[in-house]
From TrEMBL:
Ranges where the GS beta-grasp domain occurs: 45-146
Organism: Rhizoclosmatium globosum
Gene3D superfamilies referenced in this protein's UniProt entry, alphabetically: 1.20.120.1560, Glutamine synthetase/guanido kinase, catalytic domain (3.30.590.10)
Coiled coil: 635-665
SMART domains: Gln-synt_C
Alphabetized InterPro entries for the sequence: Gln-synt_C, Gln_synt_N, Gln_synth/guanido_kin_cat_dom, Gln_synth_cat_dom, Gln_synth_gly_rich_site, GS_Type-3, GSIII_N
One Pfam family matching this protein: GSIII_N
Stated family: Belongs to the glutamine synthetase family.
Domain of life of the organism encoding this protein: Eukaryota
Name by which UniProt lists this protein: Glutamine synthetase/guanido kinase
GO BP term, pick one: glutamine biosynthetic process
Keyword Disulfide bond: no
Record has Glycosyltransferase as a keyword: no
Length: 708
């Protein structure tokens, strides 16, 4: 923009965007003209308002730059074609609003909706097949009456609210230079890559995103040899090409590596402002999908595509940054006296403690439900991890005592064994003369915590791999904003007439919030049964099912939080509740129908063919006077399993039909309580049959082919 626009127009654009004012039509027209020239120089023939409906993915409708004009020449009208793009076309478009999830906000006949350019997020050109290219305009999506029908609108609102609350707290502390605080985000994207030819032979994977049946192979991830191993050459070629495509549109991918499970991988970006980070995460998923297709691979973003091995998450690394570039969650070298950091820290802990149920609702889905609480993901109990050093500082403030010397304490706890590294201050001595001193972080990391402090940010580990990170960040921003307001009010009251609060004032407020939110802090193993019992004793909610989690969104405290801050209206909150519940039920109904068909058309016919051959083998051996003991044993077991599978599958079909005819809460609860059990029962019998039927009879690629 700076290069393409006239200097006065560029200055007006920056002033309007940075001041969060409405763009005037003159600026919009100038930007539209410049971006058309820029895009066409890159081969673009079309433009699209690229938006994020509540489907977990993105949407786009392509319009060409072609415009027909007419003029009168010698008394006759002549039509000619030109390329044009106006400020009005840049600012606004009109897709159908009735065909996207709306939770009852729009009726089928009420089709009008609007996409509106988000000037904060950069436009970009994506190249397609045969030299085609399209100008992408990041946009918000609203209904005819102004309700948010997308993920971005509410994210931008929550960022505004958080900025306002954070700036007020900074002003109370005497910082009048900071005018804006942004949330920063970095999404570590996990996924599986499998051969597309094998994928095409699995109807369950194609339709539902996960394997509904299948026995884990003897070797999968037990040896822990895949994690951070050498990236397979075919995969490396795919990811490298995706990184190149992403670099061309300004998405800064920083890291790539093997994950824990076979054929599981991760890419991670450089952190950015939250709304741009969400845009970049969604486009990263799209590019990975397209590039994988060119390499005859299939990318799986489902949180649990394979039973028995680790699933995938999207660890959302979240922090706050001033317009001067200061990270407000940087503890610095002396966090015990960094009172600004401690005040923001205790506000976040207060938010997680008060609104843990609401945060749990943001990561609830039928697919993530398979992952949460297993030995690869944080449990359904929301807690926060700080690490030994910060916990000691907060404990010392609460108990009104000096903080113990963390480094000395850490050093004295090390066993005096020359073969083990010794912690000495902030370095590690490996007792190897050629090795330099190793820098040591102030705290270890806890991968079992849903919300863990990791040095200068919080890692929200419970977010699912295929979901948009937008709504989890919205609810986190909302909760933190309210707690920042509470911290500011407490400081204002205690400081009285003083210009800024004293050290004693700040410590008193920190102590107040540390004490109030102490139950949310947990430093141990979040996967253990002991933590479940301890969390119950602390009074922390353990929200296991999705329908129960969704209800947290419309609880009185959540409605007060979201509506009171203007992040969501009452109709928008309730619409999201209905969308989440309906999608959950539909996902399970689709899985039930898919599995029932798979059993009837693939599994049972294969088992019956094998039974027939066993029976024929037994009869032929009987003619020869030979006892077919092994075959008889297998046949009896197989027959019993087939009977059980057929009965369970009949029940599943009837249950799917019954639940499909339900509506609202009743449907969601029935799907979560009855359908999930029926799916697992059918799978157990099918997997038992798979374990006995010969490979040549089995009609589907097995886990061995899928994972290796």
């Amino acid at each position: 923009m700076k290069t393409a626009l006239p200097k006065p127009v560029y200055a007006r654009f920056c002033k309007q965007v940075q001041g969060h004012q409405q763009l005037d039509r003159g600026v919009a027209d100038a930007v539209a003209h410049a971006v058309r020239i820029w895009a066409q120089d890159k081969g673009a023939t079309h433009f699209t308002h690229w938006f994020q409906p509540q489907t977990g993915t993105t949407a786009e409708k392509h319009d060409s730059f072609l415009t027909l004009k007419s003029q009168i020449i010698n008394g006759q009208e002549e039509i000619y074609a030109i390329d044009a793009f106006s400020g009005g076309q840049l600012l606004q478009s009109e897709p159908d609003a009735s065909s996207f999830p709306n939770g009852g906000v729009r009726s089928t006949f009420e089709a009008r909706g609007y996409t509106i350019w988000d000037p904060i997020s950069p436009m970009f050109v994506r190249r397609g097949p045969h030299g085609t290219a399209v100008l992408y305009i990041p946009s918000v999506f609203i209904s005819y009456n102004g309700e948010a029908l997308d993920e971005k609108t509410v994210l931008l609102r929550s960022s505004e609210v958080l900025s306002s609350a954070a700036v007020k707290l900074l002003q109370t502390l005497g910082d009048y230079e900071t005018k804006r605080v942004t949330t920063t985000l970095g999404c570590e994207q996990e996924f599986f890559l499998i051969d597309r030819g094998i994928y095409n032979l699995r109807p369950d994977l194609k339709i539902t995103g996960r394997t509904l049946i299948g026995v884990p192979p003897p070797k999968h991830q037990q040896l822990e040899d895949h994690y951070f191993g050498a990236i397979p050459s075919r995969v490396l070629a795919c990811i490298a090409e995706a990184e190149y495509e992403l670099a061309r549109i300004g998405v800064p991918v920083k890291t790539r590596h093997n994950e824990v499970a076979p054929n599981q991988f991760e890419v991670a970006p450089i952190f950015e402002e939250a709304s741009i980070a969400v845009d970049h995460n969604l486009v990263t998923m799209e590019v990975l999908h397209q590039v994988a297709h060119r390499h005859k691979l299939k990318v799986l973003f489902h949180e649990k595509p394979f039973k028995g091995v680790n699933g995938s998450g999207k660890h959302a690394n979240w922090s706050m940054q001033t317009d001067g570039g200061d990270n407000l969650l940087d503890p610095t070298a002396t966090p015990e006296t960094n009172y600004r950091f401690l005040l923001f820290l205790v506000a976040i802990l207060d938010a997680v403690y008060k609104h843990g149920g609401l945060l749990r609702s943001s990561i609830a889905s039928s697919s993530n439900e398979h992952r949460l609480g297993a030995n690869e993901a944080p449990p359904a109990i929301v807690s926060a991890f700080l690490g030994e050093h910060l916990s000691e500082i907060l404990d010392a403030i609460e108990e009104q005592r000096p903080s113990r010397d963390f480094h000395a304490r850490a050093d004295s706890s090390v066993v005096l064994d020359s073969t083990k590294p010794k912690a000495q201050g902030t370095t590690l001595d490996l007792n190897i003369s050629t090795m330099p001193p190793i820098a040591r972080d102030l705290t270890d990391r806890n991968r079992t915590s849903p919300f863990a402090f990791t040095g200068n940010k919080f890692e929200y580990r419970a977010v699912g791999s295929k979901q948009s990170p937008s709504f989890p960040v919205v609810l986190l921003n909302a909760a933190v904003s309210k707690s920042l307001e509470c911290v500011t009010e407490a400081l204002e009251q205690i400081k009285g007439d003083k210009d800024v609060p004293s050290e004693e004032d700040m410590l008193a407020v920190i102590r107040q919030f540390v004490t109030a939110s102490k139950k949310i802090r947990f430093e141990g193993n979040g996967y253990s049964d002991e933590w479940v019992q301890e969390a119950e004793a602390r009074g922390l909610p353990n929200i296991r099912s999705c329908p129960e989690a969704f209800k947290q969104l419309i609880s009185p405290s959540s409605l007060e939080l979201l509506i009171g801050q203007g992040i969501l209206s009452s109709s928008e909150v309730h619409s999201r509740y209905h969308i989440q519940l309906e999608k959950y039920a539909k996902d399970l109904i689709i899985e039930g129908s898919t599995l029932a068909g798979l059993i009837k058309k693939r599994v049972l016919p294969a088992a019956f063919t094998y039974r027939k051959e066993l029976a024929e083998s037994i009869n032929s051996q009987a003619v020869c006077g030979v006892e077919a003991v092994p075959e008889i044993k297998i046949l009896k077991k197989l027959t019993a399993d087939c009977i059980s599978l057929q009965d369970a599958n009949d029940k599943l079909e009837a249950l799917v039909e019954k639940i499909d005819g339900m509506h609202g809460d009743e449907q969601g609860v029935a799907a979560g309580t009855e359908l999930t059990v029926a799916l697992e029962e059918v799978r157990s019998y099918s997997d038992a049959i798979e374990a006995h039927v010969g490979d040549k009879y089995w009609p589907l690629p097995k886990y061995t082919e899928l994972l290796f």
